[in-house]
Amino acid sequence: MGKNYVESLKLIDKDTMYSPKEAIDIVLKTAKAKFDETIELSIKLGVDPRHADQQVRGAVVLPNGTGKKVRVLVFAKGAKVDEAKNAGADFAGSEEYVEKIQKENWFDFDVVVATPDMMGVVGRLGRILGPKGLMPNPKSGTVTFDVEKAIKEIKAGKVEYRVDKTSIIHVPIGKKSFESEKLLSNFHALLDAIVKAKPSASKGQYLKSVVISSTMGPGIKINSAKVLD
Fold first, then answer.
1. How many domains does the chain have?
2. 117: CATH
3. How far is CA 159 from CA 8, 101, 107, 138, 165, in A?
4. What's the chain look like in SS3?
5. Per residue in 173-183, pLDDT tens?
6. Range of 94's domain?
7. Residues 17 and 58 in one domain
8. What span, in angstroms and rounded, lies between the C-alpha atoms of 187 and 79?
9. Spatial contact of 229 and 21, defined as CB atoms under 8 Å apart
10. Which residues pair with 161 in a beta bridge?
11. Is the same domain home to 129 and 177?
């Protein structure tokens, strides 16, 4: 453990379950790195992701964004390519980007949007984009003919959430340079969305644990019974 990490641990009572506001105030104090650390939530859910009816996946626009510049690649054709570029897409096209990814191992983008008529083409990249969490999906709003709306939401701070095989969701909610009130607002927006996405097949306690941390800092436990207070 580094010196900063050890110092940060002293600010946390490992036996205490903090309120969201308390946890955010502490995590900002534990973010001691010289760069603008990302503040991330890790949420353990009471679901079994092996079952299709217990998958939790979606997207939400954080009211204060993520603090990160997001590069968007759009797969489209015809007039939709121009629409995407005018809306702020960093890259827009079709076959040429499939080849660039396949042949050059090119990944200078963070989010992929595709129009429905391009999914046959994008599907060829499934084995490459899928494991990286970059495959467009209707549930997250990244498969749509309304590319202008999709791009603007992504640029404004739209984040995707998806439960992994260990039943945990990891999502960034901002940077250490954010004011605590902005992080708290983003926190509530994300948790509201995840609670609303609770599968009907999920029984018992849904929010098992909620932990907040900075890129280089320790995790801080949040009282899951108070996350929506």
1. 2
2. 3.40.50.790
3. 28, 23, 19, 14, 19
4. CCHHHHHHHCCCCCCCCECHHHHHHHHHHHCCCCCCCEEEEEEEECCCCCCHHHCCEEEEECCCCCCCCCCEEEECCCHHHHHHHHCCCCEEECHHHHHHHHHHCCCCCCEEEECHHHHHHHHHHHHHHHHHCCCCCHHHCCECCCHHHHHHHHHHCEEEEECCCCCEEEEEEEECCCCHHHHHHHHHHHHHHHHHCCCCCCCCCCEEEEEEEECCCCCEEECHHHCCC
5. 999 999 999 99
6. 72-155
7. yes
8. 37
9. no
10. 58
11. no
pLDDT class of 105 with cuts at 50, 70, 90? very high
CA pair distance 184, 64, nearest whole angstrom: 10
Give the model's confidence band at 140: pLDDT under 50 very low, under 70 low, under 90 confident, else very high.
Answer: confident
The end-to-end CA distance of the chain, in Å, is 34
Residue whose pair of structure tokens reads 């079709």 in the numeric block = 94
Strand partners, 211: 42, 221
- 164 phi and psi, to 5 degrees? -90, -175
| CA R_g for the chain | 19
Distance CA 227, CA 229 (A): 6
158-184 as b/e, with b when 16 or more CB fall inside 10 Å? bbbbbbeeebebebbbbbbebeeebbb
pLDDT number for residue 1: 66
Which is more confidently placed, 54 or 8?
A: 54
Task: Report how far residue 72's alpha carbon sits from residue 97's, in angstroms, rounded to the nearest whole number.
Answer: 12
